[in-house]
Amino acid sequence: MHFSKAGIRFDVCHSAEEACERVLAPGVEYLAVLTDVNMSGMDGIEFCTWMSKHRPDVAVVVMTAFTSMESAVSAMRAGAVDYIQKPLHMEGTVNRMRRVIDARQLQTRVERLERALHETRAHDDLLGASAAMKQIYSLIKRVSDTPTSVLVTGETGTGKELVARALHNGSRRREGPFVAVNCSAIPEHLFESELFGHTRGAFTDARSDRVGLLAQADGGTLFLDELGDLPITVQPKLLRSLEERVIRPVGANQEQSINIRVVAATHADLDTLVSEGRFREDLYFRINVIRMHLPPLRSRGHDILLLAQHFIERYARLMEKPVTGFKTAAAEQLLVYHWPGNIRELRNCVEHAVTLTEYERVGLEDLPPRIRDYSPSHVIVAGSDPAELLPMHEVERLYVQRVMQTVDGNKTLAAKILGFDRKTLYRKIERYEKQARAGG
Q1: Rounded Cα distance, 223 and 397, in Å
Q2: Does 297-372 match 386-437 in CATH topology?
Q3: Looking at the domain covering 386-437, what would its CATH class be?
Q4: What are the extents of the domains in the chain?
């Protein structure tokens, strides 16, 4: 009666022998069993042993008398996951069983993801079974074998270079070079020479000819990472090279033709940079022909566990350790954590855990402290005390700030989430900043 009220579906058996037949019968998948210890025929301890051998995927919880702790210990040794002392407190019993069922459901999902992992390796580390990632895979398939420029956006660590490599590997250019350029890592005064090359004597210290990165990518793919950091002084020359498919090294008199496909990536809000005059609009339009936005890891649900399992296999192999997966508590914490560093942070987390663990499955204690100890927080904008209630404009300000923090300052994405146009969002942010400077 209590389980029915709690919405837990169940079957009743009048003996352990009947339960053994039931859990082996086709058609119904059980997650947990609640059993007494003292029963005629097969007792609870023998039943736990039988379940451990024949249905280890089903959690067994035993009921035992308050004075019979030896039975509880024996049951746990035989494979039970928990025990409940009599007399039963029904609300507590229902809650205990619900926790056991939830944990078993999560473990089942983890095991299914482990099996699915080997079916989703089409793009190396670019793994995922979420709807958002399936859309990315579909777009990669349609766009790969074209010369069209692609702009990949998303937070730092979401796998933008993996998308660029997947586009390259799926095209007829796959035998050609894949040249990656981190625009934020090249000093501005060296950028033109690095990108276009130079001739001997073109400037001080130019003691020999140098082939630029654009020429190195000839016949293949040029990946411009952190495009938002491309110096404004270089942008006109790059635009002409992409439009005319020619380059002229610094100090050279002759142009040379190139055949490249450009994939660019950025975590910056290029629309804002264009409106502020820090990025050329014509170059933006030239590169932003096809746009792919990679979702942050925190919004990809159980892809987190799929990726984590992939990294476990990698680092277990590298370290030659027999680590095969995650314990339930560790898997739950991975799903709770907000992953500001996205896939890169998850990879580092798993490497840390595999390094420290002494068991076949990573436990909660093996995770980095910032992840192990994390608990989600919420912005509270109202309370039950009327004195704490806020006017609507203040609620809006707090929510806008929360959204901006969540999208890492990307105004275009924030405006889309909030349902504003970008100009409206800019005005609101400017007003909030003025109010802050004026002390409210």
Answers
A1: 38
A2: no
A3: mainly alpha
A4: 2-117, 131-293, 297-372, 386-437
Q: Are 48 and 75 in contact (CB under 8 A)?
A: yes
Task: Name the fold adopted by 2-117.
Answer: Rossmann fold (3.40.50)
AA identity, residue 317:
R
- Rg (alpha carbons) of the chain, rounded to whole number: 29
| Cβ–Cβ under 8 Å, residues 42 and 15 | yes
- Tell how far CA 390 is from the center of its chain: 35
Q: The CATH number of 131-293 is which of 1.20.120.1200, 3.40.50.1450, 3.40.50.2300, 3.40.50.300? A: 3.40.50.300
Q: Which pLDDT tens digits describe the chain residue by residue (440 residues)?
A: 888 888 888 899 999 999 999 998 887 789 999 999 888 899 999 999 999 998 988 999 999 876 677 888 888 888 888 888 888 888 888 888 988 888 887 777 666 665 555 544 445 557 888 888 889 999 999 999 999 999 999 999 999 999 999 999 999 999 999 999 999 999 888 888 889 988 887 777 777 888 889 999 999 999 999 999 999 999 999 999 999 999 988 888 888 999 999 999 999 889 989 999 999 999 999 999 999 999 999 888 888 988 998 899 999 999 999 999 898 889 889 988 989 999 999 999 999 999 999 999 999 999 999 999 987 655 444 444 454 456 777 778 878 877 877 676 778 878 888 888 888 888 888 887 777 666 54
Q: Token pair of 330, please?
A: 């560790």
